[in-house]
Design a protein that fits this description.
Helix content: 40-55%
Radius of gyration: 25 Å
Oligomer: single chain
Number of strands: 8
Distance between the termini: 26 Å
Number of domains: 2
Strand content: 5-15%
């Protein structure tokens, strides 16, 4: 869809935010160290599950993150710049306005220049350092008290930015005042805090939806969302535009399906879900029977008083979950070009490496580790087949 703007001299056709390629794709090409940004994107995906106000989330397209919002029946494009680098000071007007490489390269100029598409623009800066007093007004919600266009804080900030860029205009002709009136500065602290907040939001959402999840179950789904955002960020607009844009109906369908699988798995008789998951990847009947037996032996050991010290048991269980989550994340992201049976073999090999790394003289834990893996698989916290989106 294109929009004709007749408020400027001559009719101008503004390109669709969903159709025109980004002006540059530096992000998808080199995304090392983008975990903070991916965690921020996950937060917006969870918000999208909670509210129909977010229609779509783009990862690494026309900005670090692009959110298509519906406000009072009108669609807006919210351009999000994520600044995860840790400054040793508060963010200042100088940080915002200083050019890095020449004309148009300051954070402010780059943000304002995003205003070039068919939808009206909003702007957001996400940082984990607070802002200096002149920028504090941007941390207030849009339309809130203190953000009035003629208010002293807004007027002072406009004057401060104009000292650096007095003639700043977006391609659509909007100026510094427009940017200030439509920009939110979003302070989210460090990555671990965002991850914890996302986990809590997911658990709260499951309760609101009557799909109550345990923390370990919610952690599995959070990892899947994280990998979804990562995969979207890594995709190139051409030929994989659809992979870069995550729509609300996709995320809602995923949420309903995965929470049902996890809750059904928790309620199913022991071994039932495990057998199904192994059968769907083409594991043979003998392999399935052995896996079910290992899971059953593991469950029996967990009921045996002082089979192992409690701390050792918990440590090994957490190790299995961590290793499986790490491998599953690589598999889901497409970094492992293997089928389900090969992925199962890879998981078993990794557990054997963990077992071989035990201290000298310590009892062999191979069966325990495998039984633990099959147990979390039976509880729908792990799987061997590729996820369907």
């Amino acid at each position: 869809m294109t929009v004709i703007d007749d408020t400027l001299p001559g009719p101008i056709v503004w390109p669709s935010i969903d159709e025109i390629p980004p002006q540059e794709e530096g992000g998808p090409i080199a995304r090392a160290g983008f975990s903070y940004q991916d965690e921020v994107a996950v937060g917006f995906l969870i918000e999208m599950l909670r509210s129909s106000a977010i229609v779509k989330v783009h990862c690494e397209s026309h900005d670090d993150i692009l959110i298509v919002r519906c406000i009072d029946g009108i669609l807006y494009a919210e351009f999000v710049q994520v600044k995860g680098n840790q400054l040793d000071q508060l963010w200042s007007v100088a940080n915002l306005c200083t050019r890095k490489k020449g004309l148009g390269t300051s954070i402010f100029e780059v943000s304002l220049a995003r205003d070039r598409h068919d939808l009206p623009s909003l702007f957001r800066l996400v940082t984990h350092r607070p802002v200096a007093p002149p920028l504090r007004v941007l941390t207030y919600p849009l339309g809130s008290l203190g953000r009035e266009s003629d208010g002293s804080a807004v007027v002072a900030l406009q004057a401060a930015i104009s000292e650096y860029h007095p003639d700043a205009k977006s391609p659509k002709g909007n100026d510094t005042q427009f940017w200030i009136e439509n920009c939110v500065w979003d302070i989210r602290n460090d990555q671990s805090n965002i991850a914890n907040a996302n986990l809590i939001k997911l658990i709260e959402l499951s309760a609101l939806d009557s799909r109550c999840l345990l923390p370990e179950q919610a952690q599995v789904l959070l990892t899947e969302l994280r990998e979804w955002a990562k995969r979207a960020g890594e995709a190139r607009w051409t030929p994989d535009r659809d992979k870069k844009v995550i729509a609300r109906d996709e995320v809602c369908a995923w949420w309903v399906r995965r929470t049902a699988e996890i809750r059904d798995g928790a309620a199913a008789p022991g071994g039932g879900k495990l057998s199904h998951k192994l059968d769907e990847i083409g594991a043979g009947s003998e392999m399935i029977a052995l896996a079910v037996e290992l899971r059953r032996d593991y469950a029996a050991l967990m009921r045996t008083p002082r089979y192992m010290e409690a701390d050792e048991t918990a440590e090994l269980q957490q190790r299995v979950k961590s290793e499986m989550m790490r491998l599953r994340a690589r598999y889901s992201a497409g970094h492992l070009d293997i089928d389900g049976v090969e992925f199962l073999s890879l998981c078993l090999d990794r557990l054997e490496e963990v077992n071989e790394a035990r201290p000298d003289g310590e009892q062999d834990r191979s069966a325990f580790l495998q039984g633990c893996m099959y147990d979390i698989t039976d509880r729908c916290l792990h799987r061997f087949g590729r996820p369907l989106r």
